[in-house]
Amino acid sequence: MIKKKYLAGIIGIACLGCSFSQAHEAGDFIVRAGIASINPSEDSGVIQPTIVSPNGRVNIDSDTALGLTFTYMLTDNWAVELLASSPFTHTINFAGDLGALGSLATAKHLPPTLSGQYFFNTEGKFNPYVGVGINYLMLLETESTANGRAVMDTIGTGGNYSIDADDSIGLTFQVGVDINLTDRLMVNAAVWKMDIGTTIEVANTLRVDLEIDPWVYMLGLGYKF
Which residue spans traverse the membrane (predicted)? Predict the structure, then answer.
């Protein structure tokens, strides 16, 4: 009787291990959804012309939105992934000598990213991976804040409150892990480092280069088809 109990336990453990075998295989399509946070590590140039201020700069705050990834396994180890999201909205603030002036504008954007990935372990519960790809910063809308318009009135832009910013293309590096809950359901955590930069033009008068270069963090659930 005892032997039968031990045997049943061993079989149960073995079956549990089997449920995670070959977690990702060639031809699998994986959809992940979760919370994504963009955290800029920006490096601003000086606002031009410098007659406004010898060290006037800008910075940009963080934001959180719905993140989505779509992965197709080309082989048991190699995959291609598309990162998408709902729009992120950031506030652009004066910085440097002009830091006391407050906000300048808001910028709404999408950061679609296409990456090639390599998965290290396709036969276990934990499936870490790395990736490298191309990011496209797609600016949907930029507009001055009420505070920014007041500052522009002080500068004397003649009622022109326009804020323009360039789209950007850059490299992206990624690390992540899938933690398999069942054969199809998983928890995912991923981090991207993106090369993003833009030039902001204020009222067709002032210009500033801004290297955003954010860290992007995402935690969510995935489902494999």
Answer: none
